[in-house]
Write a structure and sequence with these properties.
Blueprint (H helix, E strand, L loop, with lengths): L3 E12 L2 E12 L3 E5 L6 H8 L7 E6 L2 E2 L2 E4 L2 E4 L2 H7 L3 E4 L11 H11 L5 H14 L15 H13 L5 E5 L7 H16 L4 E4 L3 H7 L2 E6 L2 E6 L1 H6 L4 H10 L1
Helix pairs in contact: 3-4, 3-5, 5-6
Bound molecules: adenosine-5'-diphosphate and magnesium ion.
Magnesium ion binds next to helix 1.
InterPro entries: AAA+_ATPase, ABC_ATPase_HisP-typ, ABC_transporter-like_ATP-bd, ABC_transporter-like_CS, MetN_ABC_transporter-like, P-loop_NTPase
Keywords: ATP-binding, Cell membrane, Membrane, Nucleotide-binding, Transport
Membrane topology: Peripheral membrane protein
């Protein structure tokens, strides 16, 4: 097994000719927690969306647990992988979005069961047992039969996290997982992310919660203008930022 959960090299994404991601490199070790920070519009969401191939990057290579995803080099030439190969890899990357995106017409339990049955071809019994265990772990044992509209924002976000975890991903990507929540619900979701980190889950968390980045992340990555402008351990990056743009950003959000 590879010690590198995710490897991104030379990732470039353009919208209407202008580069939103400009030659980004990032390797994430198995079990590592990366907090990604940066001003609005700097490319954080696009970066996560390109890693999952929701968005097609113009250039760059992605690999998950040592296996190429999307593009690979065969005999010295770059090949787009066939759709089959891409689809088989997709469950290895769990993504939780800023906006709560459960299927509204399915119960919380069914939201967690369905992708396991459809994508991983698990039996309904196996998928249901796994979903019930996850919902219980996430303090949602008595919420399984509710439709999303009958859950609080924090509960919905926890169901979305359970749904992603049910796929046994190599890595979890979180795009501002608490930014749509009422202030009193933020702490619960951050505590859950902290538990996941303590359990060894590899993750990239895009967040404006600097306290979370300081306490939970192994590494903080500051993105600016589609590039990684500074990165390192939180104690250094957050307390002794070198890049003046990072200094300015931190003084604005603190
Ligand atoms: P962040 O998540 O850091 O706030 P985004 O990745 O959402 O930033 O956006 C980065 C830049 O790319 C912004 O200038 C945004 O307007 C632009 N952008 C994002 N998605 C699209 C799209 N689908 N079409 C055109 N421009 C986009
Ligand atoms: Mg964003």
């Amino acid at each position: 097994m590879s010690a590198t959960a995710l490897s991104v090299s030379g990732l470039t994404k353009r919208f209407k000719g202008s580069a939103v991601l400009d030659d980004v490199y990032l390797d994430v070790a198995r079990g590592e927690v990366v907090a990604m920070i940066g001003p609005s519009g700097c490319g954080k969401s696009t970066f996560l969306r390109c890693i999952t191939l929701i968005e097609q990057p113009e250039a760059g290579f992605i690999s998950v647990a040592g296996k190429p995803f999307g593009r690979e080099v065969v005999g010295g030439t770059v090949h787009r992988q066939p759709r089959r190969a891409v689809d088989a890899m997709r469950p290895k990357i769990g993504m939780v979005f800023q906006a709560l995106n459960l299927w509204p017409h399915m119960t919380a339990l069914e939201n967690v069961v369905r992708p396991q049955v459809v994508v991983l071809k698990r039996s309904r019994d196996e998928a249901t047992a796994r979903a019930q265990k996850l919902l219980a772990d996430l303090d949602l044992a008595d919420r399984g039969d509710r439709l999303p509209h009958a859950l609080s924002g924090g509960q919905k976000q926890r169901v979305a996290i359970a749904r992603a975890l049910a796929m046994d991903p190599e890595i979890m990507l979180f795009d501002e997982p608490t930014s749509a929540l009422d202030p009193e619900l933020i702490g619960g979701v951050l505590a859950l992310l902290k538990d996941l980190a303590a359990g060894g889950m590899t993750m990239i968390v895009v967040t404006h919660e600097i306290g979370f980045a300081a306490n939970v992340a192994d590494r903080v990555v500051f993105m600016h203008g589609g590039r990684i402008a500074e990165e390192g351990p939180p104690g250094r990056v957050l307390k002794q930022p070198g890049d003046p743009r990072l200094q300015a950003f931190l003084s604005l959000i603190r």
